[in-house]
């Protein structure tokens, strides 16, 4: 992945928009090996809700958009708050910010706070990722 | 749906056990790939290449005993356990904070657990909440993910 950029405290990420499709919901449920009856029981509005953690991985899109994903990472902490269920057909807007960098044992732990809103402004979730975001050189260092 | 009115300090949620297989990791890549490729055309090359989730030797070179499951799986499983128990009170109103304490391997069975540590009501809304200790353990009983969660207690 060429032209990689490093991210630093204060960098803003996004906005990045996408629409949740039926296929995305199907793949996600299969990935977490889950039937969705526990969601259907609560989806009284007739919409097909996706599980709350569906948007946790959206930091990856924010980093990719910034050309800062590198070659992966190691997730060490996660905080999430869920305001409203997201559903199939809904358009979501993701925005984030790099809020902290901590160095431990020569490794840089990056904190990214990001929020997911529906395109109409309804809040969906707020997340805080902490982890190592590998650039190519970092990954080689981690292996050493 | 459990009888939520009976939730009190010491209530243990029904545990949830799952195994993350290669197929599950592949599906996460399939989920991310279409949008990721639009954002960075090099993503597929990474996703298709050897990495700590897909290749034992790459994982071992990085210091892991074998292919590692993405940590976020354990968070998704804890969330499912809380969704099954609290329903809308978790899906719209829940919050969680976890540390991915140690990696778990592809093919390893993990079990999520939660215990209510405190219940309280908000004066303004009269809504009732539960604070919980949550964790995921591997089959040896080692904690792989641990933290706390808060859910609204709302009967249907």
- The name of the CATH topology of the domain at 12-20 and 55-141 in chain A is Thiol Ester Dehydrase, Chain A
Mean pLDDT across every amino acid position of chain A: 85
Fraction in beta strands of chain A: 35-45%
Please state the second-level CATH architecture of chain B.
Answer: Roll
- What's the CATH class label of chain B? Alpha Beta
Global shape of chain B: elongated
Characterise the protein shown here:
- The complex is a heterodimer of chains A (144) and B (156).
- Chain A is α+β, with helices and mostly antiparallel strands.
- Chain A has a domain at 12-20 and 55-141: Hotdog Thioesterase (Thiol Ester Dehydrase, Chain A, Roll), CATH 3.10.129.10.
- Helices cover 21% and strands 38% of the residues of chain A.
- Chain A is built from 4 helices and 5 strands, in the order βαααββββα.
- Chain A has helices at residues 22-31, 37-40, 58-65, 136-143, and strands spanning 12-19, 73-82, 91-104, 107-118, 123-133.
- A 5-stranded antiparallel β-sheet of chain A has the order 1-3-4-5-2.
- In chain A, a hairpin with a 2-residue loop joins β3 (91-104) and β4 (107-118).
- Residues 138-144 of chain A have low confidence and may be disordered.
- Chain B has a single domain (16-153), classed as Thiol Ester Dehydrase, Chain A.
- The mean pLDDT of chain B is 90.
- The N and C termini of chain B lie close together (9 Å).
- Chain B is built from 5 helices and 5 strands; from the N terminus they run βαααααββββ.
- Chain B has 156 residues and is α+β, with helices and mostly antiparallel strands.
- Chain B has helices at residues 22-39, 43-48, 56-61, 72-86, 88-91, and strands at 16-19, 95-100, 109-121, 128-138, 143-153.
- Chains A and B meet through α1, α3, β2 and α4 of A and α1, α2, α4, α5 and β2 of B.
């Amino acid at each position: 992945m060429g032209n990689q950029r490093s991210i630093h405290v204060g960098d803003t990420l996004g906005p990045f928009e996408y629409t949740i499709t039926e296929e995305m919901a199907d793949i996600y449920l299969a990935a977490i090996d889950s039937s969705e009856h526990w969601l259907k029981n609560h989806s009284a509005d007739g919409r097909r809700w996706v599980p709350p953690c569906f948007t946790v991985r959206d930091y990856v899109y924010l980093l990719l958009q910034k050309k800062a994903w590198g070659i992966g990472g190691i997730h060490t902490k996660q905080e999430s708050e869920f305001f409203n269920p997201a559903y199939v057909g809904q358009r979501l807007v993701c925005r984030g910010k790099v809020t902290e960098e901590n160095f431990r044992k020569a490794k840089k732990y990056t904190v990214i706070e990001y929020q997911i809103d529906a395109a109409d402004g309804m809040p969906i979730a707020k997340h805080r990722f902490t982890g190592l975001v590998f650039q190519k050189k970092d990954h080689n260092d981690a292996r050493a | 749906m459990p009888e939520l009115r009976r939730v009190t300090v010491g209530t243990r949620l029904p545990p949830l056990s799952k195994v993350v297989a290669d197929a599950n990791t592949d599906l996460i890549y399939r989920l991310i790939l279409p949008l990721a490729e639009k954002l960075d055309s090099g993503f597929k090359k990474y996703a298709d290449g050897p990495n700590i989730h897909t290749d034992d030797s790459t994982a071992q070179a990085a210091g892991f005993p074998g292919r590692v499951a993405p940590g976020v799986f354990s968070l998704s499983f804890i969330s499912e356990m809380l969704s099954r128990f609290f329903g809308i009170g978790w899906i719209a109103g829940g919050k969680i904070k976890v540390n991915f304490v140690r990696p778990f391997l592809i093919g390893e069975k993990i079990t999520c657990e939660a215990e209510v540590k405190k219940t309280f009501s908000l004066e303004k809304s009269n809504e009732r909440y539960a604070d919980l200790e949550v964790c995921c353990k591997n089959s040896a009983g080692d904690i792989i993910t641990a933290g706390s969660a808060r859910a609204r207690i709302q009967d249907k």
